[in-house]
Amino acid sequence: MTTAPASDAELLTAALRAQQAGRSADAAVLCRQVLAREAAHPQASLLLGLIVGQADPAAGAALVARYLEHFPDDPAATCNLGLLRQRAGDDAAALALFERALAGQPDLTAAWQGRGHALQGLGRLDEAAAAFERALALGTDGAAVTRNILGDLRWSQGRLDAALAEFDQAIAADPRLTAAHLNRGIVLARLGRPAEAVTAFRQALALEPSSTAAHLELASALEALRLPEDARRHRTEAYRQQPVTLEPAIGAPPAGAEATVLVLCSADRRDVSVRFLLDPARFKKLHLVLLRPQDGGPHPPSVFESLPRFDVVFNTIADADLGVPYFAEAAALAARSRRPVINPPARLGATRRDRLAETLAGIPDLLVPATRRLSRAALVEQPLDGPKLVRPAGAHGGETLERIESAAELERFLLRTLADQFYLTDFYDFRSADGLYRKYRLIFVDREPYPYHLAIGPSWKLHYWRIEQDVTEAMKREEAAFLADWESMFAGPLGVAARAIARRLDLDYGGMDCGLTADGRIVLFEANANMLVHLNDSEAGFPYKHTYVPRIFDAMTALVRRRLTASPISC
């Protein structure tokens, strides 16, 4: 006797049982058997859409939409379609579907949660918070996760205390929610409570020892507590676990313009920032973080061999002091890649502060103050024959830079720093005729100078972030004139000297900070590959920067494109 084929109802019942048992593939096969008989079968379309949507949200959404053509007033199915639209990246369409579902079933918790996510994605944070609060009021098995999401939203609003309260409630609901402990620590660190942050990060790591984010955040908190070796250990562990990250291009690049840049970084992460230097619409960035030999470096060959294809290498490990433990591996990887290399490590040693005088010797109209690299013991014994600048080797930004003129001042300085190696530099007064100090930054891209900023202030310690709040309209006009035509201020032989410095450094990317002396010379503060360039200043407050600074980014794009044209083979 021939067995009668299973009915559609029987096949769907079997599909539901398979799905509930975690056998999604079997359930999908059964649904397709039903659809082979009736292409628009609503229930089979719905179930298959939910299964397929796990891997392909757009395909799943099309199937669920087919079900809704037959049952347009089904709130649960409408909510599921919204979730699929949301996973496909269409928050606006998802929001309309969640609101339609809630019109039919106002107590549908999943729709309130989805509405919150959609509103958050659309930047409507206050409405998103209200949606999540409504979901919590209705009651949900995922209360801890929702509290964590709400805390993240409060954090995005800048309401750190409210965010902390949400993370506390999330942990109370589920003490094993790693993300809540991690987020709680981040907020505590931002609130200036690093010791409590350390405890939170350690709790996150106890739950998830392989959490890269927890190791990195813990490292930052330990640094704030002046525990650099403990911080280094956790940062190293994070990059040992995850040495490679891919940062995709944003948006559609110009035709044929996209390339992948292998960005070599150090575990210390005191490297050149490529956020603005590499156009995010043109370049994918493949970050490879190197480790010091004493921390487990170099990486095994398998790490390099497993890298995705890339077109050019940018060595951002640029500090001539801090980069030393990484330069050998960076050079070996660059050579092994057989790709064009921006800033080969071999060129960076000549930029060390105590070597610049030799590197730039003989350039007319340039004053390079004498600089010595000294151990702590040697520094204490060094005679002070006039005002000196002292800083730890590898330090930038001016936080630990001081001018000293006596042994007592040196002693007080040493009490404030744990460093073992220092730079001692002769100080030259570079005040202008109006009594103000001026520090100029020129960026060198492929050995061509580009103006970046001019800091003006009453103190010799000119770091742009220190004086920005005191910038007057007159200072802005002067800086704008510098950015528009830097050679108007570096006229004649000074412009010649600046270009000579760029050529002598022989860097693909670098720059210099300098002043101008009363007798008409450039006085050099530093010249190296570790120059920070950004465009974070508000366009309303500094419109001229948004006009002129992008020329640096365009020059970097042109440099990379030239290197690719000269060497078109990809790894």
Write the layout of secondary structure elements.
Layout: H1 8-20, H2 24-37, H3 42-52, H4 57-70, H5 75-87, H6 91-104, H7 109-121, H8 125-138, H9 143-156, H10 160-173, H11 178-190, H12 194-207, H13 212-224, H14 228-241, E1 244-247, E2 259-266, E3 283-290, H15 301-305, E4 312-315, H16 324-337, E5 341-342, H17 356-359, E6 366-367, E7 371-375, H18 376-381, E8 388-392, E9 402-404, H19 407-415, E10 421-426, E11 437-445, E12 448-457, H20 464-467, H21 473-484, H22 493-505, E13 509-516, E14 522-528, H23 543-548, H24 550-566
Helix pairs in contact: 1-2, 1-3, 2-3, 3-4, 4-5, 5-6, 5-7, 6-7, 7-8, 8-9, 9-10, 9-11, 10-11, 11-12, 11-13, 12-13, 13-14
Task: Report the portion of residues in β strands.
Answer: 5-15%
Q: Helix/strand/pairing class, anyone? A: alpha/beta
Q: Would you tell me the overall average pLDDT?
A: 90
The biggest sheet amounts to: 5 strands, mixed
The percent range for helix content is: 40-55%
β-strand number: 14
Q: How many H/I helical runs?
A: 24
First-residue to last-residue Cα separation: 64 Å
Order of the strands making up the biggest sheet? 1-3-2-4-5
Unreliable runs, pLDDT <50, ≥5 residues? none
Rounded Rg? 30 Å
Shape: elongated
Concise description?
By secondary structure, the protein is of the alpha/beta class.
What report would you give on this structure?
The protein is an alpha/beta fold and 571 residues long. Helices cover 49% and strands 14% of the residues. Strands 1-3-2-4-5 form a five-stranded mixed sheet. Helix 2 packs antiparallel against helix 3, helix 6 runs antiparallel to helix 7 and helix 12 packs antiparallel against helix 13. The radius of gyration is 30 Å and the shape is elongated. It starts with 7 loop residues before the first helix and ends in a 5-residue tail after the last helix. The mean pLDDT is 90.
